[in-house]
Amino acid sequence: MSILKASKLNYYYQDGDTRRFILKNTNVAFEKGKFYTIVGQSGSGKTTLLSLLAGLDTPQEGRVFYEKKNIEKIGYDTYRRDYISIIFQNYNLIPYLTAVENVMVPMAITDNKLPDEQETVAINLLDYMGIPNEKSKRLVTQLSGGEQQRVAIARALSTNVDVILADEPTGNLDEEMEQEIVEIFKMLAHKHNKCVVVVTHSPEIALQSDHSYLLRKGALKENV
Ligand SMILES: Nc1ncnc2c1ncn2[C@@H]1O[C@H](COP(=O)(O)OP(=O)(O)OP(=O)(O)O)[C@@H](O)[C@H]1O
């Protein structure tokens, strides 16, 4: 059964009298335990689709469902806070906080754990992502790009959600770092039963996903 589903999405920009469709009657469903990629030419609408799945934007028509509940009914703020995590190309970490403090931010908003417990969870998550204790106490600006993205993934995991959405998460990384991040996504899907949806330009990443979709002219097709 799917955990996340988009049904009949229409998204367009009004250009004078005409509607320029980015998504046209788009349907897609995602399951837990799988690693998905969405590919497509620049400007094809990948980020738009991810933004709708993340409840960051709303379609003119159509619905997004989380476990059969319309995310509009869940409430977009609640949905983004409690149901999903988003990973961005440029990490979106808070530069004046350490790695541990960055990972604690969502927990401080959503959890009733004591700060000490939150810190322990953050340190363990960072360690699991390959950021040792010594580095986790550094400001994130003192970490490499690959390390910063690992911190962002640890942060995404801190609220223990089932759905991880990532927009070009390896866009700023070299090939070796890219592959390390891809291995983490595979592990999250296959070992931790997460639903991982990644927008990417990389055919190499698409090849390694369980399902790949191609977005072209507003339509989503199996990428074979
Ligand atoms: N405010 C806007 N008004 C009009 N068109 C817009 C606006 N914002 C975005 N677009 C257009 O919507 C289309 C889809 O953009 P989107 O960012 O979703 O594409 P993308 O596939 O993620 O691109 P890329 O791979 O380059 O990141 C693009 O052609 C873009 O120019």
TrEMBL record:
Which controlled-vocabulary keywords does the entry list? ATP-binding, Nucleotide-binding, Transport
Q: Which family does it belong to?
A: Belongs to the ABC transporter superfamily.
Q: Entry's Pfam families?
A: ABC_tran
Which positions fall inside the ABC transporter domain? 4-224
Q: Source organism's superkingdom? A: Bacteria
What Gene3D superfamilies does the annotation carry? P-loop containing nucleotide triphosphate hydrolases
Which InterPro entries does the UniProt entry name for this protein? AAA+_ATPase (IPR003593), ABC_transporter-like_ATP-bd (IPR003439), ABC_transporter-like_CS (IPR017871), MacB-like_ATP-bd (IPR017911), P-loop_NTPase (IPR027417)
Q: What is the name listed in the Swiss-Prot or TrEMBL entry for this protein? A: ABC transporter
Enumerate the GO terms in the molecular function aspect. ATP binding; ATP hydrolysis activity
Task: Give the source lineage, highest ranks first.
Answer: Bacteria, Bacillati, Bacillota, Bacilli, Lactobacillales
SUPFAM superfamilies found in the cross-reference section: P-loop containing nucleoside triphosphate hydrolases (SSF52540)
Organism, by scientific name, is Vagococcus martis
